[in-house]
Amino acid sequence: MRLTTASGRRLVAGIPILWLLVLFLIPFIIVFRISFSEVRLAIPPYTPLLTWRHGSPVLQLHWSAYRFLFTDPLYVSSYLYSLKVAAVSTLCCLGLGYPMAYAIARSHAAVRPVLLMLIVLPFWTSFLLRVYAWIGLLKNNGVINNVLMYLGVIHHPLALLQTDFAVYIGIVYSYLPFMILPLYANLEKHDGTLLEAAADLGARPLRAFVRVTLPQSLAGIVAGSLLVFIPAVGEYVIPTLLGRTDQIMIGRVLSDEFFENRDWPVASAVAIVILLLLVVPIMLFQRLERRELEAAK
Amino acid sequence: MKSAIPNVNVMPPAADPDSAYVRIANLTKRFGDFMAVDDVSLDIRRGEIFCLLGGSGSGKTTLLRMLAGFELPSAGTIRIDGADMSAIPPYERPVNMMFQSYALFPHMSVEKNVAFGLEQEGRGREQIRHQVGEILDIVKMGGFGARKPHQLSGGQRQRVALARALVKRPKLLLLDEPLAALDKKLREHTQFELLNIQQRLGVTFIVVTHDQEEAMTLGTRLGVMNHGRIAQIGTPADIYESPATRFVADFIGSVNMFEGRVSDEGSDCLRIDCTELGCTVRAERTVSCTRGAIVWTAIRPEKINISRQPPTAAGQPGPAENAVRGTVREIAYMGDMSIYLVQIDSGRVMRVTLPNVMRGAERPIARQESVWLSWHGSSPVVLTE
After folding, report:
1. Which residue from B92, B103, B107 is facing A197, i.e. has the nearest CB?
2. CA–CA separation, B204 vs B171, rounded Å?
3. Which CATH architecture has domain B20-246?
4. Per-residue pLDDT for B3 more than 60?
5. Is 0.90 topped by the overall pTM?
6. CB contact under 8 A, B69 and A296
7. What ipTM is given for this predicted complex?
8. What pLDDT is attached to residue B13?
9. What CATH code would you report for A72-296?
């Protein structure tokens, strides 16, 4: 009996470990390795790291991909632009999502599942289709411009598409549920008597929110923000369809390096640097989560 | 909240103990069709500990929440120290509450929790630190200021909650089942400490509890609640010895209650025929009732004598007064006392408690023994409702 429990436990833990090993760690090592090679016209299109010379292995590490990344302003500006877009979008999602999550958590228990369902409902339509739909809304003779012109608010169509604004709209629209759901999960657990206690001790509702609700929802804020920020940094589809043509995001750079330039080492280096940029906030999050877990005990 | 509460260590006790400090008048709270609190009027004096005692759903907690301002009354008024509280939100009332769950802020240290109320008043940092330190010393939590609530035991959390509620020196402190979460030993100890702190600070306490023992030890006066109404108000002794209704007699302590008919009324005593009991009860005349009226007599278990011989008066021929014969069915030995369940000749079972005064009594009454139960004429309480 004990043996089966132990082997069952090992199986349960083993599946995700195997999954991560095969689908994350090994590909990561491959990409990491490619980033230290040089491009060549062959199959595969990069130099091997290990070569055999006079019967002994020789390690050839090339830093050229990384050097290239930090000398060509295209990459640096793309990184910075991606970080900016992701940060602004995350803040917008937080600003929109927090009140929504709060309202759902405070709503009557009977309507809560319905409201949550409405949040998840957009996922029933393909992501690509929904982004395409925004083109129809934002373009010069799109729905928004036509309505505004018809109402006489504007006389010339506003340039909405292919702007930062369009990218923010697209990202906020697409990622808002990822902000709301963890926030809701957090806020829903809050003990209402704590707010009563705060009021009892003389705190007006807004102050009680700032001193009691907000600090306790920090883990939800961080979780939601990371769920929006991390994919937003590498976002490819939304900026490509809705965004500017003069300033591209790093996800697009990555794709272009692979498929247009066929420069695998540089593309790999781009990917590695994105990863490094994202590891810092993830580690911060994990530290916070660990602290929360300790406090919950 | 920024009223002229003197910021002194010890407030003098009430100058005039009879003046109503908290005046609750015709207070009613409806939740839909349900009358949680039904036309309650109640005066609470300055400096007293008033216990609201009742079962779940009796309306005691709703009454407390209306005092704190969390629920708005459907009708009626609450005045505290002369000021009408109707339009005052909780955060402006001169009232603090100690919650049953303690409701300590989990993300704040003990010090921060206690300082929270003072910070809302915009006091200076130095003053806050001083007052927080002082109150933590009073509740004997001086060394725990830096801890988080989850690092404290239940008893310690209770002290912090008390300190947090007292640090603003409220005119009125509301305590919702203050000791319910503590184990029995700690509860007894804390009861006396709570009394001590209350006397030291002179704050008026209103305590809600379902535990009669807690209410009896803590309360200077009790209000027994039932179905949203106050069934009786009085000192613990009043309530226990002279319950006004069958509900109160039954709710507080245990009681042997028998229905009967008034057969004779003297100027100071009543005779009641109890067929259920199988004897005539002679009781002091404390209520007005006429011959033939249906009444109930209530006799506390500890006011009944148990003996092998018939009591002297009952040995005489004729119907016995205040004495019945029965058989011991069960004996529960509790240490300090024993509970005897005696089946009397009419078939009913009476509960009798005797203190175990002697260590190892020589010939204790055993199960299935035939015994006489008797009581003094002052023991039965006659109830008309």
Report:
1. B103
2. 7
3. 3-Layer(aba) Sandwich (3.40)
4. no
5. no
6. no
7. 0.81
8. 46
9. 1.10.3720.10
